Design the sequence.
């Protein structure tokens, strides 16, 4: 089918021909509402007239950046990678991914489960909800998806086939390269709130820090460890107290192990800073610290668990090494992944301060003085991460950095 | 055109339809001779009857490993990557690549310049020829081809397009992964001369060393720095005292900067060991040491020169860093490339001892005791390389390792 942008009415015509969607709704009469307020795409809720909880989501990419308009071209092929990533993650760990009922690369759209009992995690964290199962859930999802899409599990040809499926996600990878690692650390027209800001001036002149960021950018661009979500912040997680679900993997590509972990860590740092500066809720801050420690520690343990079940892979030929040497190698390997994730967290946390894409916890603070305080705190933590990531030993050191930064 | 394997006669029929080849020969009557004794492919010399120096080479891949026979399947698509690499290298530095007159991916063949005044460099080194221009030549070729196919020069989308062109060279990458990094360091049916060999036993139990090799294998598989030749030993270089030409890039893929450098260094080590143990020619050994030092040092200087002319790339946005910081970053970057190349040289040198693909300088030594002496010397040097590559500072340390190893 040739691409055309759907609207509230043509969405309903389109799904008439999609058996998997029609069999979900049965004989019900349907309605469609546009519900998305996303930056990139159009999102419709399609629901049964007589039971609006019986619903699916249709998400369609348009060939421009929705929040700016048609003059900011952005190829709709990004939806191909979102579809492929959803399918791949679903095949590895279905319970953390919305169920996909239909997808079409030619129409740049996907129809999937409507998560009505979940909220965006970023909002939940602002509202001080303690998601007690989250560290267990996300560590499983990340350990499984990263391990099973890496050369530690796949064969050499399977790994290359995986790269083939995601290598051409050119525009969104370039967006990350520019926005996460470059523009937010220099005078740039896309930056926000940097005028007359002493912290911004200091940041832009901090060459020691920027060298670290450049090293990590190079790693981001050239290190093909595993299939990443590519944008795993707390706005890409739908959650309630029982379940967590990962959405919006349009930035997916085969990149360095530590990146998704780092992005998530950085977004927890933003939340920690918000609750240090704005809500000043010590108890909730401690819950955030505990969650950080748990998800990073559990990730490492689970990753090693998955690895222990795998005998042959692109990397390892059974019998190459004795058991003790192999265990030592694996421990060193996962420690290096952990270190990189701390470095990437430094980039992600810092870029949210002046970069075009801010986070609600910091940029959303309306009181100017408080916002400045929060920004300074984020930058301080990010700097500690970046200057220490190559030698950091364990999760406790991360908590120390966060506690000492206040 | 559908693929069919050519022979002495059908080769001449095939080129009748190829204008670029026919215009090279004009009205001359032609003959074809099979001249290849390669492991993988069939090679024909097509020449004018009245002037046999007026000649071209036609190289065709068959869907099996020629030296074993049809029972060892190896997809003929490897020729696609050889053609693409020849074209890419030629576009960057034509004087080091045989001129291609015609290529066909569907027929898995390439027609190229006949290098009649050149010899295979490995043979020249055995014959103690001092190629005085070689370090200058090869350092230019490698610095240019590696730099201009990397994220230090290309844009983000150009780099991904390059990866697309080479990512599916699956079988030959897998061969390298197995043969350079795995099988030669463990009990394996493909190994040669390892029975009752004390050095082999010691090597296979040397877990400290094998951990280093595994780290480098992981880097080989996942680090996408630049387009590599992939098999740049002295048998892939045609040379005389004026010119050097790089051939046979069928192992080409986008991989780590240090690999080609390391392979070349290792093959110079084999030659050094041969002239230490067999010919015992001190003067020639010194020439080899000088060449090693020169090509590694010149490579680094030229790479930095190319880099200094490049302002914007996937990695660098103009204005991101001040000049001094950028210079420091680049120096560190090239030092790390150098270090990796020493590590890769350790793998390549050592794998030639018991691995299935030996080198003439070592495996070709007919005297068993001398061969054992040479093997021990190679292994000693390779071990020094591997145990020290992460901290090695400069080329002189490499020469020290070689001198001290005797």
Sequence:
């Amino acid at each position: 089918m040739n691409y055309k942008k759907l609207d509230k009415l043509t969405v309903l015509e389109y799904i008439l021909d999609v058996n998997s969607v029609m069999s979900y709704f049965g004989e019900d009469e349907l309605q469609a509402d546009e519900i998305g307020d996303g930056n990139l795409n159009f999102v419709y809720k399609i629901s049964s007239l007589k039971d609006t909880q019986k619903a699916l989501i249709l998400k369609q990419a348009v060939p421009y950046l929705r929040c700016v308009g048609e003059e900011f071209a952005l190829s709709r092929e990004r939806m191909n990678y979102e579809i492929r990533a959803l399918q791949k993650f679903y095949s590895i760990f279905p319970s953390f991914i919305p169920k996909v009922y239909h997808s079409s690369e030619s129409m740049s759209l996907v129809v999937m489960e409507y998560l009505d009992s979940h909220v965006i995690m970023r909002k939940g964290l602002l509202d001080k909800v303690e998601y007690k199962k989250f560290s267990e859930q996300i560590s499983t999802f990340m350990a499984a998806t990263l391990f099973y899409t890496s050369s530690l599990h796949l064969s050499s040809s399977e790994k290359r086939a995986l790269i083939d499926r995601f290598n051409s996600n050119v525009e969104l990878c370039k967006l990350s390269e520019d926005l996460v690692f470059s523009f937010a650390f220099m005078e740039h027209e896309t930056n926000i709130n940097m005028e007359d800001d002493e912290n911004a001036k200091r940041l832009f002149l901090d060459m020691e820090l920027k060298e670290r960021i450049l090293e990590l950018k190079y790693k981001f661009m050239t290190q093909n460890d595993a299939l990443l979500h590519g944008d795993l912040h707390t706005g890409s997680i739908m959650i309630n107290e029982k379940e967590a679900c990962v959405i919006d993997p349009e930035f997916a590509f085969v990149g360095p192990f530590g990146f998704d972990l780092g992005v998530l860590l950085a977004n927890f740092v933003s939340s920690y800073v918000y609750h240090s500066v704005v809500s000043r809720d010590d108890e909730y801050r401690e819950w955030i610290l505990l969650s950080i420690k748990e998800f990073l520690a559990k990730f490492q343990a689970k990753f090693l668990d998955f690895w222990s079940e795998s005998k042959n892979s692109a990397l390892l030929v059974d019998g190459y090494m004795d058991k003790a040497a192999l265990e030592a190698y694996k421990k060193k390997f996962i420690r290096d992944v952990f270190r990189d994730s701390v470095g990437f967290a430094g980039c992600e946390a810092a870029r949210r301060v002046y970069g075009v894409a801010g986070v609600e916890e910091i940029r959303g603070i309306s009181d100017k003085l408080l916002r400045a305080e929060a920004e300074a705190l984020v930058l301080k933590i990010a700097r500690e991460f970046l200057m220490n990531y190559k030698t950091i030993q364990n999760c406790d050191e991360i908590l120390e950095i966060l506690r000492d930064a206040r």
